[in-house]
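Dear colleagues,

As part of the handover before I leave the project, I'm documenting each prediction I ran so the next person doesn't have to rerun anything. This entry is a single chain, and its sequence is reproduced below.
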Amino acid sequence: MPTRTGRPPKITRAEIVAAALRVIEADGVGALTMRRLARELGTTAMAIYHHVRDKDELLLLLLDDYAAATPRPELPDDPRERLVTAATAMRDALARHPWAVDVLRADDLFAVGALWYPEQIIDAAVRGGLTIEDAVDAYRIVWHYTIGEIGGRAAARERREQGGSTYRERVFTEIDAGRFPRLGQVGSRWEELTARDTYDKGVRALAAGLLS
């Protein structure tokens, strides 16, 4: 293959963002570097720096693009249902791109367009009788529950896709029912039962407790 000479091809910010998303979806946020991105685009790292300051700015662009393209539901008037609907929309948006959770869990980078979710959850909590301070606490509780649920499901799905039995599956298949009678009742069904989507049940329980 002939060696490329002369100036690297011109690139646009949109092309950079699209390439960054390909890298992240293939290999995770940790794999995204300017050198890797330059190889993906067939250009140089310096050419990319003409468009974005650093990796953080690039991640912000990705988050903003994703937030802008994500539809938002109509919210009911009832405070509990309002909180549940907004929280579920947040979960659904993040679940489609789990890489965003890896970026957002550090509580540093966020998309301004995605502030709709905490705004609506906090508003629902205030409508339900909480002070603004307690409403922020309620949002944080829902947020941590949500990202924990997404992260756990993503890890379990990846493990199942690798095939074969897991250590946990073997333990529960052979569990000592005399020592652990309740767990022994489910035994080999543990994997099946814990794979069920319980987000709605969980967030409704949170809403009921927080807004009681």
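The mean pLDDT is 87. The chain has twelve helices and no strands.

All the best with the project,
I.
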